[in-house]
Amino acid sequence: MKKAHPDFGVTELCNALGVCSSSFYYDAKTPSTEDEALNVLVKLIFNEAGCTYGRRRIQAELKAIGCHVGLYKISKIMKNQRLKAIRPKTQHHYPTSGTGHKYAPNRLKRKFVPEMYNTYYVGDITYIRHHQGWGYLACVLDLATKYIEFYNYQRRHSALGCMTSHQKYIEMKNAA
């Protein structure tokens, strides 16, 4: 650049060409064979683990084979190779009641379409996953009309909460 026009500085010439002045001083670094081997090793460990290992587990695996590398360098390698660990979904567990469940007698005898409404009700509890965790929805359904007569949503799963929902519905029906 100095040979092109000695009266102008590097910054002025770079601005005239529409190039950042830092690119004039930039010296591209070729990765060393050690870095290339580390890239291959990180990718191999990541793939062998079923794409579930993150930087800490990869660091532990590398340390086990005698290669001491920092977390930041492993993160940088994973980012450059677009390796992102798959996180397993959290499992849903119901609390244990401690006693065996008793089966209720079959009063419907597979007659799911009764002639009169307000005679048979069914209830169900389902869990819904959302961004804050788990929520539980208890519903009471009239079999004749197929309408949801009552529902209750709670953040915790408990049999007491479902029974309370059902009792609230019965009280509401008796009051009407």
Automatic annotation (TrEMBL):
Describe the location of the HTH-like domain by residue ranges: 35-89
Highest taxon in the source lineage: Bacteria
Name the InterPro entries on file: HTH-like_dom, RNaseH-like_sf, Transposase_IS3/IS150/IS904
Protein name per the record: Integrase catalytic subunit
Q: Which organism is it from?
A: Catenovulum agarivorans DS-2
